[in-house]
Amino acid sequence: MSASLTGARPAPRLPVRPATALAAVRVRRRRSTGTRLAAAGAVVVVLFAVNVLLGSYTVTVPDFFRILAGADIPGASFIVLENKLPRAVIGVLIGVAFGIAGSVFQTMLRNPLASPDIIGISYGASASAVTAIVLFGAAGAAVSLSALAGALAVAAAIYLVSRRGGVAGYRLILVGIGFAAVLHALVSFLITRTDLRTASEAVLWLGGSLNSSSWDRATVLALALVVLLPAAAVLSRSLQGLELGDDAAAGLGVRVEASRLGLLSTAVALAAVATAAAGPVASVAFLSGPIARRLLGNRPSLAMAALVGAVIVLAADFAAANLVPGISLPVGVVTGALGAPFLLWLLATANRSGQGG
Questions:
Q1: Which of 56, 17, 92 is closest to 314 using CA atoms?
Q2: Count of CB atoms within 10 A of residue 48's CB?
Q3: Domain boundaries along the sequence of the chain
Q4: I need a surface site. Which of 132, 167, 207, 222 has the fewest CB within 10 A?
Q5: How many other C-beta atoms lie within 10 A of the C-beta of residue 23?
Q6: What is the CATH number of domain 73-351?
Q7: Considering the entire predicted model, what is its pTM?
Q8: 42 in Cβ contact with 30 (< 8 Å)
Q9: Angstrom distance (rounded) from CA 259 to CA 239
């Protein structure tokens, strides 16, 4: 019987509350982010396995697990445990460190050019390490410690010079580029004034290489990240506010200068320990943040930047080790070759969208 005959009215449709709709959007976004993070993590695992199992010396999966269980396979055990495995582990760790460091700088300063390898921090490590090699004959751990000290000292100098009236993103970037130019000139001068053998050692370190990877370096790097990664995770809560600008961040209750100083210190330490472990591997910090943003729909994510950094380093290292038969190139040669076209693409897309100069 129709509603007009019985006098009954159809039940009214309940309006969708804005809060409910917003919660549903957040749930979908979290699921999408989780799926993409899982996919990036799977790529890291696959590339890790490719680096360990394939290449100039291949190892089968059963033999790999037998080696891990303690079996002694002549030749294979040494190559896997002392060469391929620590190399892949350090590749993942420096990729994570560079990726997070670059993403923190770029998000906080709201500029994709604000990465440690462009604003002078990596050049500080390079200049200090080359000075130790050329003037004092340093090698091994001494070079790594010199690089770490140099990166921290230059980062502190850049911050102090650019902090007048508050650290503005463009000011810090310009000051950092100026420091980078001076330090690059210093490195070139030192290399030209030393003997051929010492100069070749310095140039090899400047290339950024995983060829000298060892479990000692991997252990030190892992211990540093155990401290720095939780610090980055805690401090990253203020990143979204700082990305809106100092005034907006202060209005949201963010302690602007304290948060910025903490984030800068953590990001510099991450870039410094990664550089100390493998040299200034070019463009990883520069590439990871923007790629991670695009994978997540223009949303910043330190976790995605870390995974993208690991993917870049592992893929580039496998290419560097196998691109030319019989020659193992520094990984920085491959990653550096990726940086220039990405910068040109970044500028071209920014100009098309009206964001460029």
A1: 92
A2: 18
A3: 73-351
A4: 222
A5: 11
A6: 1.10.3470.10
A7: 0.87
A8: no
A9: 8
